[in-house]
Amino acid sequence: MPDRSIKIAPSILSADFADFGREIQAIEAQGADWVHVDVMDGHFVPNLTFGPPAVAAFRRHVTTVMDVHLMIAPVDPYIDAYAQAGADILTAHVEAGPHIHRTLQAIRGAGMKAGVALNPATPAEAIAHLLDMVDLVCVMTVNPGFGGQSFIDMTTKVRALRAMIGDRPIHIEIDGGVTPATAPLVVAAGADVLVAGSAVFKGGSVANPGPYGDNIRAIRAAAEAATRG
Ligand code: DX5
Ligand code: ZN
């Protein structure tokens, strides 16, 4: 059976940008399963974040899984650079270009796990012919670009993906507006990886990391309760 235990992936988009190393160490010490890195290009989404050298610097502090979410177009010219930077999982948007099939082949070819992300307006069926070439499907529950936005209900899409995936070893990741209140909805529909930025980092800091742990435990508890139906 594929591993469908709940995994919490804090997004460092909500971390202190002057202190990424210690922020990553803090969230891992406080129970993060993965570290989610949001790469934005100011073109595919209206915000700019991390190039490959920044991601390589984060890698030195990550001991779990570095989950890199590319919100960039085009993707293909940068795949090798993010592989060199140490991404374990590299996710590209299905909307980022006409040749997502080639992109996913190239990601696996570079030795990484391949993820495909769907914007809120994109139907589950958009990836029906890609299921044998992905390790993760990321369902956006906000329009990508910024942390701290309100959750958009995509449970119908998650349910459809869960049915399409069947027994394949593919994670369903939810990204955007995840809190202890929204996590149960998507987990009950079949999601197993929960990205959370503002809901993990709120109230804490590297000097006071306890709230990060409280926040991660609160999301996990709400999510696991939903798996018990
Ligand atoms: C949105 C990013 C998310 C974001 C989530 O474009 O892909 O990963 O950081 O932030 P919250 O959890 O605050 O909605
Ligand atoms: Zn993300």
Structure, explained:
This protein has 229 residues and is an alpha/beta fold. It has one domain (7-228): TIM Barrel. It is built from eight helices and eight strands, in the order βαβαβαβαββαβαβαα. Strands 1-8-7-6-5-4-3-2 form an eight-stranded parallel β-sheet. Strand 2 (35-40), helix 2 and strand 3 (66-71) form a beta-alpha-beta unit. It is globular. The model has no long low-confidence stretch (mean pLDDT 98). It binds D-xylitol-5-phosphate (DX5) and zinc ion. The site of D-xylitol-5-phosphate (DX5) has 22 residues, from strand 2, strand 8 and helix 7.
Key words describing this protein structure:
18% strand, binds zinc ion, globular, 229 residues, TIM Barrel, binds D-xylitol-5-phosphate, eight-stranded parallel beta sheet, 8 strands, alpha/beta
Which regions have little confidence, pLDDT < 50, spanning 5+ residues?
Answer: none
Mean of pLDDT: 98
Rg, Cα atoms, Å? 16 Å
Summarize the helix and strand pattern as letters. Answer: EHEHEHEHEEHEHEHH
CATH topology (fold) name: TIM Barrel
Strand content: 15-25%
Quickly count the helices. 8
* Fraction of residues in helix: 25-40%
CATH C-level class: Alpha Beta
Record field, number of beta strands: 8
